[in-house]
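Shipment paperwork, digital attachment
Item: protein structure file
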Amino acid sequence: MNNDETLESTDQIIGGKSVQEWDNSWDYVPNGFNSLQSQLRSERGIFAAREGGRVMYIGAAVQISGGLRAGLARARLKDQTGNTSYGMKSVRAAGNSVEAYIIIMNSPIAREEIEELKWALIDRYKPPMNAPKDIVAAAKKAASVKRS
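Attachment content:
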């Protein structure tokens, strides 16, 4: 990533904070992907899988019910709606080699702002387990055309 992209991403304001401020607020979750995190049931926000300090995957948990608990759980559950993406399958396959980190973004932060921060952080870190946004959009479009 070149310096211009870093500055643009850092200066972007989401939910009243810069991307850099959000990026400085990651919290480690012990056994985050491997055990139920009941305390995060009503917390919404961003989660990341890190391996050896490197960000490998970034996801968002925008549901009010289930929240980050459900987001982290998607990595350990069998394939079902919400966890069949390349990224979630990769996190699941990585098992204990990845650690979970979260950024809590509760009300009045809107669902769209959580998604916006997710993409800003993906742009910043370019995690190898996340598919590029244009590929995701093309896949969704192809799936909707198939159903028609």
